[in-house]
Amino acid sequence: MSSDTNGSGGSGRPPAIEAEGLVKRYGDKVAVDGLSLRVGAGEVLGILGTNGAGKTTTVEMIAGLRRPDRGSVRLLGLDPRRDRARVRQVLGVQLQAAYLHGALTVAELLDLYRSFYPDPRPAAELLDLVGLEEQRRVRFEKLSGGQQQRLSIALALVGRPRVVILDELTTGLDPRARRRMWGTVERLRDEGVTVVLVSHAMEEVERLCDRVALLDAGRLVAVDTPGALTARAGAETLDDAFVALTGKQLEAAE
């Protein structure tokens, strides 16, 4: 696959996500600076960057959760803010912070979210996907941090979305749960779902992602396959390639 440092595509698939010239400022700080990116239908795209590189702001603008100061986003041809109701039916989002009603059980939260969609995934299937079968009657506030994370992923998948955004998918999960989540992403890819995966875990990115976008100070430094990025940097690992291409060390997720 050819290099694609400007983010114009390269997956060989019709685009599911098209972001053009995104800019987002917070006061004097530029969080995202002219970022353009296309993600092909059915592609798993990883986004890597140091803390403060603009990763979460970027995916929040793609999802319509944050308005860009400049630039545009199209998600399956829809504007995530103007076409909000239609986008909700095709997009699933799991962000790092979950704000759910603590008194509701896992099963009650799943049933609530399932009521928002005409053809939701069965609750039993969702519980199996994220390994929470034994916690179905546990209130959200009683779940461990890792279990809350897994429930957030299940809720993102309730409506059979065609595009899924996962921000730090496996942060706080034990090795067994982490690999289970990897299997869930692989299943989504097999179903033709487009996945945008923000991650600090190189093993995760190399295993799951068709392409990887490297962000630094709000700018897109490079986007290509893990192997091509490693070769371009003359490195032995994707971690080393990241350092070579950005001049920075990737921190572990908090």
Largest sheet: 6 strands, mixed
Task: Please state the structural category.
Answer: alpha/beta
Overall mean pLDDT: 89
Based on CA atoms alone, the radius of gyration comes out at 18 Å
Strand line-up across the major sheet: 5-6-7-3-8-9
- Give the helix proportion (percent range): 25-40%
Count of helical regions: 9
Secondary-structure element pattern, one letter each: EEEHEHEHHHEHEHEEHH
What is the distance, rounded to the nearest whole angstrom, between the alpha carbons of the first and last residues? 33 Å
- What general form does the structure show? globular
Strand content: 15-25%
What is the oligomer described by this structure?
single chain
The total strand number stands at: 9
Q: Poorly predicted ranges (pLDDT <50, ≥5 residues)?
A: 1-10
Give an account of the 3D structure.
This protein has helices at residues 55-63, 84-88, 106-114, 123-130, 145-156, 175-190, 202-208, 226-232, 238-246; strands spanning 15-26, 29-40, 44-49, 70-75, 91-94, 163-167, 194-198, 211-216, 219-224. With 254 residues, it is α/β, with parallel strands linked by helices. The two termini are 33 Å apart. Mean pLDDT is 89; it is low at 1-10.
Compact description:
The chain has 254 residues and is of the alpha/beta class. It is built from 9 helices and 9 strands.
What keywords describe this structure?
9 helices, 32% helix, alpha/beta
Task: List the SSEs and their pairings.
Blueprint: E1 15-26, E2 29-40, E3 44-49, H1 55-63, E4 70-75, H2 84-88, E5 91-94, H3 106-114, H4 123-130, H5 145-156, E6 163-167, H6 175-190, E7 194-198, H7 202-208, E8 211-216, E9 219-224, H8 226-232, H9 238-246
Parallel strand pairs: 3-7, 3-8, 5-6, 6-7
Antiparallel strand pairs: 1-2, 1-4, 8-9
